[in-house]
Design a protein that fits this description.
122 residues; alpha+beta; Beta Polymerase, domain 2; five-stranded mixed β-sheet; globular; disordered C terminus
Length: 122
């Protein structure tokens, strides 16, 4: 399965569970570890876990190997590693605090650019 197809499936899985502020970054020129990074936000720990689980289930059904997954215990930041595609699902405050989009050359989604945020990073 091609990387674009895997990314599309992961994004669909996030949208199915109402993931917010979903972005996809092409990291192929930045690292050889993975080709795409997808970042999404969930409103609660429970939703973050459900979003990550949805990604895992949808990718497994399509025959994609899941290398690993971390963060299900707390549900604040869950990572799903599907080899060439890595998915990060976070609570809003965690996403704002770590700003991994900027670390990988992306832009913060519109909710963080000049918009009033309903949270603040500690």
């Amino acid at each position: 399965m091609e990387i674009q197809e895997i990314s599309k499936l992961a994004i669909e899985a996030l949208e199915d569970i109402k993931g917010k502020d979903i972005i996809e970054l092409d990291t192929s020129k930045l690292t050889s570890l993975f080709q795409r990074m997808i970042v999404a936000t969930g409103d609660s720990n429970r939703q973050v876990k459900a979003l990550a689980n949805s990604v895992q289930v949808k990718l497994k059904e399509a025959g994609v190997d899941i290398v690993g997954s971390e963060g299900h215990e707390s549900g604040e930041w869950v990572l799903v590693d599907a080899g060439d595609v890595v998915v990060h699902v976070m609570l809003p405050a965690v996403r704002d605090y770590y700003d991994i989009e900027a670390l990988w050359g992306g832009q913060k989604p519109s909710f963080a650019v000049g918009a009033a945020k309903p949270w603040s990073a500690v």
